[in-house]
Design brief:
Layout lengths: L1 H15 L3 H24 L6 H24 L3 H6 L1 H14 L22 H10 L1 H5 L1 H25 L9 H4 L1
Length: 175
Amino acid sequence: MKTIQKLKNTITNLYEGDSEMSHNFRYALLAVDIITIIFLVISTFFYGSAIIEMLDIIFGIYLAIDYFVRLWIAPKKISFTINLLNLADLIAMLSFLLPLLGENFAFLRSLRVLRLLRSYRLQNKLRKDFPYFKQHEDIIISATNLFIFIFIMTELVFVTQIGTNQHVNNFLDAM
């Protein structure tokens, strides 16, 4: 039991702590989120490829691990589960893991971008580490929100039009 509690404390510190290791861990999570977004765009150029479907499952497993670890360390499990960002993460995870349901649900993967810059701790660390971010935070957050909206709408257009509209073959066409 002590080992499990020690592991839980270590993971909690990584996700929510204020140490340098914690900040680096959260920057790594941000980097993986950005890689996920890039993958979502690139994958539209290889629509239906077996490699893309395999990578979908790998990203889905990563999201599942991240989600269930955060649930495990959450002090209030019900509050965690009904939080809108966590619900978006759960839906995104399921859409990565359930390609058998068809690509009509693939646009739900884009809900993962909602996590981008949403952590107050991450924003505080960005303010401390990057004076430019601190000086232009409102513009950066607004631009990020606009990007998220455009990204989700483009994914929705792509998924609903691919195979139906001959002019939509990839993410850029959908945009």
